[in-house]
Amino acid sequence: MSVEPIKSVENNMFRALLLVFFLSFSAKAFADETLDRLSVEELTNLGRIAQAEHDYARALECYRAALEKGNSPRAVTNIGLMYLNGHGVPKDVEHGIELLREAAETGHPNAMMVLGATLGGRGKTEDENTEARDWLQRAANAGNVRAMSFLAEAFRYGVGIPSHPDDANIVRQNARASLQQEADAGDNDARLALGRIYKLGIQVPADHNRAEALFLAGASSGHVIIRRYLGSLYLDEMGRYEDAYQVFKDLADEGDHGGMNHLQRMYAYGVGAEKDLAIAAEWALKSARATGNAHSLFHPINGLQAVRPEDQHVYVQAIQTILRDDDFYSGPIDGDVTDSLRQALSQYIGEN
Description:
With 352 residues, the chain is mostly helical. It is built from 18 helices and no strands. The longest helix is centred in the middle third of the chain and has 20 residues.
């Protein structure tokens, strides 16, 4: 079976997807915005941020406001996903697929990719598998790299077509070639996507030096997400702790909550930095203030409990001390996460 040629990655689409998944601020920042002042795209972006933060009522409100203003295949796609998963609405798989199909029929590459992946994941009938492959092929031809990856697996395992490993390899090679072409032309989104492939060894042998070169090229332009991945590469895969620390410290000093979160973990667990739970707590609070929610504060607690239970109490004591010094907390310094501490944290970071 021959494989249709796949076009190069479309910069705007890929960039839009990355923005949706990696926007590094809270939807709560817009809590007082009047929705009718925002554009369809802004409303859809705001809904996606709220959805990522599990504020499904807010997400649905934003998506519906976007659809009242105009066409938004992205909003329809995301509402469809909410119905598929029962997030903020009664779970209704068939209605979710109906919405995904509605968005896909507009020719929106991401909608086609999501529909194809959803149908292929169900695989209830041969016709459904064939439809899944067709939508993935259309999305891949439009340059959607995730569709290329799903399509490769469809070829490999015979979803809707006879299994043929050679066809899967061709699709993967075309996807990487498309990304490499864009990366060589200076596109940071392609550098990020291709760098992740080589960092994690996604369907190819891991190549950390190649990943580093791609991330360094993007980091030189100040791209925040690429810089985070560069630091993670140094920390997790290459064991270059001093380099990792410097990347995350620079990001944190610029106000990036991702850099702050990594410093928090490095100090909390003594990986890449000398273990210091008080400094970990300081970075945790700074990150919480940068994002407007306290969720990141509690990331290390379960991990510390599993490694050394006493560290959990020291970490929470450090948070209590900082809050008391700043006149937000008046309770005991006992290392316990109580309702009064949670209330103090909410006030400290300005949560509603």
